[in-house]
Hints:
The complex is a heterodimer.
Chain A lengths: L5 E5 L2 E5 L7 H8 L18 E4 L2 E4 L12 E3 L13 H8 L9 H14 L5 H8 L9 H15 L7
Parallel strand pairs in A: 1-5
Antiparallel strand pairs in A: 1-2, 3-4, 3-5
Chain B lengths: L6 H5 L4 H6 L22 E5 L2 E4 L4 E5 L8 H13 L6 E5 L15 H28 L6 E4 L2 E4 L5 E3 L4 H5 L27 H5 L15 E7 L6 E6 L1 H5 L3 E7 L13 E6 L2 H9 L2 E5 H7 L8 H13 L14 E6 L2 H10 L2 E9 L11 E6 L4 E4 L5 H12 L6 E4 L14 H13 L3 E4 L2 H6 L7 E9 L5 E11 L1 H5 L11 H8 L7 E9 L13 H19 L3 H8 L5 E6 L2 E6 H15 L10 E8 L3 E11 L2 E12 L6 H20 L5 E2 L2 E2 L17 E6 L17 H13 L11
Helix pairs in contact in B: 3-4, 12-13, 16-17, 17-21
Amino acid sequence: MKKQPTRLQINGKPQPCQGDADQPLLWYLRDELGLTGTKFGCGIGMCGACTVHVDGVAVKSCTVPAATLGGKRITTIEGLAGRGGALHAVQRAWMEANVPQCGYCQAGQMMAAAALLARQPHPTDAHIDEAMQGNLCRCGTYDRIRKAIHRAAELARQPGVSA
Amino acid sequence: MRPASPGRRLALKSGAGAALALTLGFRVGAVEHNAGGGAGAGASFQPNAWLRIDDSGAVTVLISKTEIGQGTATGIAQIVADELDADWARVAVQTIRPDGKRMMVTGGSYSTAGAWDGGRKAAAAARHMLLQAGAQVLGVEVAACGTAGHAVVHHASGRRVEYGKLVRQAAALPVPAAPALKDAAELRLVGRPLPAKNLESIVRAQAVYGLDVRVPGMVYAVIERSPVINGRVASVDGKAALMVAGVERVVTLRGNTFPTLEYVRDGVAVVARSTWAALKGRGQLKVQWNDAWSQSKVKNGTLASGTELAADFDRALEGRDIGKPPHKIHAMATASRKGSAEGMAAAFRSAAQTLELQYDVPLQAHVPLEPMNAVAHWTPQRCEVWAPCHAQSQLLDVLCEVTGLPPQAVIINTPMVGGSFGRRLDADYAVEAVLLSRELGKPVQVVWTREDDIRYGLYAPPSRHKVKVALDGAGRILALDHAFAALSVFRQMTPEAIGADGVDSAAAIDAVKFPYQAPQLHVRHALVEQAIRVFWWRRGYTPNHTFVNECLLDECAHAAGTDPLQYRLSLLPPPQVLSFKNGDDAETIDTGRLAHVLRLAAATAGWGQALPAGAGRGIASTVTDTYVAQVVEVAPHDGKLRVRRVVTVVDCGRVVNPQLVKAQVEGSIVFALTAALKGAITVEQGRIQQSNFHDYPLLRIDEMPLIETVLVDSTAAPTGIGEPASHAVAAALSNAIFAASGKRWRSTPMQM
């Protein structure tokens, strides 16, 4: 009996997911859909490089089987920018603050930050600590990440900026 | 199953490759040479190896250096574009492929500094040629023209010709041998906080890192490696792995023998149509390992362990069991001596106070966030590799030996690199990918997991230091005897780099470079060999010696009853350049610049001003070729101490890009605090005990101190910044903890 594929919605597009029921969303995104912006860092949900949004909430995609996400709205870093490639407030702030060094963890950092701002438009440092402490940066860009999140909160209040 | 193997070729590696490796992680001796002589033909202008201008006016700065997050691609492009009078928006930067001619290695915090000379000269040559070509086109004298904004401009009339329109004429002109450089006052890009060239591609997630490389027909491989160094595959049962959907092959990989320049472990690769299938397949492998093989070959009956390492360090420092199996301990060698043995003995006899201190620095892992990986495609005629590494010339040598192909048939691409900190100077993952590609006859991506990265890595060299200090009645240092035992990168990879006197200059130089007055000064080391791979780690040994020297100065200051800042300043010779022998080379310390960063850091941090109860400040400094002083402040928080603030003053000469320099300082502080506070790598029975971020934790955003960085305004030639601000943090922290609590940490990780 052929198994029915799970239907996922990724960056606004329906995507069938068939095959190994255990496969983490991370590898489904990277190897099957070619969405390599979501990164592999630890495989145990401790570094946050693989952070995506599932129904708007930051989730570590290395620990969630894709097959369990039927009907969910999934957004990856490739889907964070708005129509026509207009950068999200977080991405704009990341550029203003010159956050990245090697850049590898930054997709996960930006996804975590965007999820924070979606539920907390005026984050305090304590909110940032709480929301971002699961995202590691070996290059040590934390200081600029904090500044960029505060800046993104300002930018998001401006008209015409997607957030 | 025929094992894929690098064979003896790799094990017997020597000659050019070995000489090349001497420069890794340390100062690169050779200056970049401008390979070009003749000008390029056609619709682009390439006067030398550094830059190309096409007829649209697009400028590409061609760099032999690798961007690994340290900002060097942007810094070098800034230097070149400034000298060229190019429009920054029309300047791109590209890392070249190794061609066997231009040395490709990135390390030693020397890349941007190295371009200050070579890159400017190359750009100046191009600018002079464009200027001549432009004058011809405008029909005026060269002297009546200048360059500005990507064009040649006739001063009197204001008429201009864009660089792109001049590439054909310029390419026909001779390359000037010694073109005049712009005056420093005319620099418009150097010194500006320009964003990194790759910023938008990172933020849009369009940057292609090694792990993101996709080649048609590519398969994915995950390797179960020997848990111990030099262990061999005894038997493999791959049936269950082959049952996993998507798994294509199980391949035994025959490694070579440690110690060697480019060590590759024995392993069993699971090759699959997706990373996940390969990972799942690896979980189903049943591999028997022959540890006994390693025992007989490497340690004559023992596998590396932490307790044994400590015992070997003690034997080495006490001069016991030198050269006696099963230990491999080399005799104590003198790296530098000021005064004499008799003078030293006399100083200790006459001392008002003596201190005997022991410091320990553990193994640390690099753990860049992107795990090791590479893609390789080896056909009989050519071998193409996509490897996120930054010692491409060495990798080229190694792959020519492994494949038997000539250099022009080995193509090495450098994708984006997700961090390194030294780890990616070694490219064992690329050799694995090449061996597997030969076996499979198609492109293969080798993916290391985090566990592989931590267990099968190379580690910061551990060391134990025994320091004896004799102080006079005023607390001045009469004599300092610094003996240390360490694992040696040179011994493991390039033993010919060890001097005839037995000195490992890379291991010793930062102990030798002690700028404070000590009439009797003896620095010596005993090298220990164990089957634990050690390597450059945001330099190597500099963090170890800076921790020792800057803590011991603090201990001497307290013994003398003097303020630690005043103590340092009083022992520092008046402004002058001190020179220290480093192998066949010399390194210098300008005591005036060092005193300046110390004073400025203290002033910025409010040194001497009252702190809340239970808080404390510590100061430390370090000189590579850049001068760094740091003040760490700790304060009580939830019943423990917490790092509250880190003030850093940096003198790295002329600042090419202040935001990139500050980024390196911020990152270096996080890197160093992680090592100082979080953990260490340990080894038992030849097996690394840590495996992922749960047992090798990194500093997180909620643990960040306030960071304040001051860059000294300087017109001296630029010096490095990728590493230096990480070296003094541990000592400044230890000194701060002592100031706050009276507890002295002489080893890391420190418990707050």
